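Side project, low priority. Logging it here so it doesn't get lost.
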Amino acid sequence: MEGRFSDQKNRPSIKVFYDCDHLSVSDFTGVLLGIEEEGIPYDVQEEHTSDVLELAHKASLDSRLGVGVGISKEGIVLQYEKLDKAAPLFKIKLYQKELFRNIGANAARLVKKMPFKPLD
C-alpha cells in the first residue's frame, strides 16, 4: 500500500486516525485500499481514544486536504474540516466490512470533488 505510518505533517494527504488501544491496521485495510485506489496519499496515525467522532474531526483538522477518517470500535467516520464534529459526512459500523473500500474511496473522492460511491 502506498500510504504510510508517519509524522509527515506537511504532506498533503488524507489523515486516518485510529484507536490503537482496541484496533490494529489489519482491522481496516479495506479503507486504506479504497483511498489508494483513487490515487490520493494517506497517513495513518495511532491515537489513544475510542471516540470516533473526535478521531475523525481531529484527523480532518490535521490534514492539509481537510479530509479525515476516524476509526474505532464505534465505527468508521469520514469527516470534512468545515463540517461540525457531530455531523460527519459518513458513518458506518465496524462490522460493515463490505463498505470499507467505498468509504475510503469516498474520502479520496471528496478531495477530487467527484461523486461518492454508495454506502448502502
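Brief comment: Residues 32 and 104 are 6 Å apart (CA to CA).
Revisit when time allows.
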